[in-house]
Amino acid sequence: MSIKNEEFRPKIVAFCCNWCSYAGADLAGSSRLAYPADVKIIRVPCSCRVNPMFILRAFEKGADGVILCGCHPGDCHYSTGNYYARRRMTLLFSMLDYIGVENGRTRVEWVSAAEGVKFSQTMNEFVEKIRSLGENVRLGDLRCKN
Amino acid sequence: MQELITRAKELLENGTVARVLGWKAGDLPYNPEPAYFTNAEELKDFVYNGFCGANLSKYMIEASKLEGKTLVCLKPCDTYSFNQLLKEHRVDREKAYIVGVGCKGKLNIEKVKSFGIKGIESVFGAEMTDNADTLTFQTIYGEKTCSYAEAMLERCHVCKGKEHVIYDELIGESKDTKDAERFAEVEKIEAMSPEEKFAFFQKELSKCIRCNACRNVCPACSCRKCVFDSTKFDSAQKANVDSFEEKMFHIIRAFHVAGRCTDCGECSRVCPQGIPLHLFNRKFIKDINELYGEFQAGADAETKGPLTNFTFDDAEPSIVANR
Predict the structure, then answer these.
(1) Among the CATH numbers 2.60.120, 3.30.450, 3.40.50, 3.30.420, which is that of A12-138?
(2) Residue B136 backbone phi and psi in degrees, to 5
(3) Which of A99, A104, A106 is closest, CB to CB, to B251?
(4) pTM of the predicted model, to two decimals?
(5) What is the mean pLDDT of residues B101-115?
(6) Interfacial B residues in 178-217 facing A (CB < 8 Å)
């Protein structure tokens, strides 16, 4: 029997808004800026589309970290979506902290379509952070493990 | 209580109201239940005492669809819920005749039982006429007494005040019952380490049996289609329920009423497993107060709720990690 000695590869879900952050990720790609492959991007119409349940669900299904990227406040394609998202996420993150989920597994970052560098930097930082926190054991559902 | 019944009869007779929404005596001396009364004959079962904890404002959603006005008895804290429902266009003000009833704190029978008072045959001192100091129980083991204040529901210790925020007339006296800090419990948990917090909430939430009582009783939970009833969603299946209850259900439930919860405490009152559900709602209220300014849902029927509103310079979510 071989001994597996794999390093921990976190599963990270990134919700990116269609108008800014998804384009920012695209720019990061076409500018050949590297960011870890552990980040799985889910495109949403607006950062405001992200229901708190999406985030809890991602954790339940085995994500180790969830990051939400949207347009900078003031630049929302739908004018005000990200302002609402900002309030919601603040409350949700505070609640997650309150029930004892480690701080830092969740993050919100505003990334515009021109900020490929910021996107790649943010993702590198976030993956590092999640690596240091280790596997998400608190919110995950055991049966979702593979 | 007699004054209330007399007035209700009067209003029924002169046709101002078509029905009365109040409480009727249950099969035990301490479990009155919400009920409709349509004539003087039925009103003889009407009760209003310290055990009438149920918030009747949610019943007005259905009563608003009926013919004629409904006389509804609302305690001071219930009027906040009514206002909130009014703001959300869930109830019709024209269909309600609100009688603001006095409140001297509502009792928690579980607390009484925890004092070792069991086999209760009758209760004295829970009527709203006296000054609500001591409760005397006639039990099968003899007479027992306990302090009224100690047997009160948690929510009455952190009472919002005995002012009715919406009413047509007021009947009965109130007595101030606030004797604890509203956010003290929340602060205690906030001061714990993540491991302690997690252990505390898992211990509490693993008791959940998903009876949905907290959802069904909540005056703010009034969606016609509820996310928890969706068959496409795993929560509707028993096999998926355990971890869901512990990790998602209560956060989602509390989040759905964040900014709209008046802190009426019905969720904790009805929980058959005794889970302190108000801790979730109150955490959201505390955060909203700290981050977006003091807000009391239901204090009026016009102001925008904190989650349907924003300012350009709101705190960034990263504030949570830096606190």
Answers:
(1) 3.40.50
(2) -115, 125
(3) A99
(4) 0.91
(5) 89
(6) 186, 189-190, 192, 194-201
Q: Can you tell me which residue has the tokens 């101002």?
A: B16
How many angstroms separate the CA atoms of A2 and A56, rounded?
Answer: 36
Nearest to B301 by CA among B150, B117, B90: B90
Q: Would an 8 Å CB–CB cutoff place B319 in contact with chain A?
A: yes
Of the candidates B41, B86, B27, B36, the one whose C-alpha atom is nearest the C-alpha of residue B56 is B36
- pLDDT, average across residues B50-78: 92
As a 3-state breakdown, chain A gives helix, strand, coil percent values, each rounded to 5, of 40, 15, 40
Please tell me whether the interface predicted TM-score (ipTM) of this complex is above 0.95: no
Using N-to-C axis directions, what is the helix angle for A116-133 and A21-30, rounded to 10°?
100
Percentage of residues in chain A with pLDDT exceeding 70?
93
Q: Where are the domains of chain A?
A: 12-138
pLDDT over threshold 60, residue A1: no
What is the residue type of B275? Answer: I
**B134-139 sheet: strands from edge to edge:** B120-124, B134-139, B142-147
DSSP-based helix, strand, coil % in chain B, nearest 5: 40, 15, 45
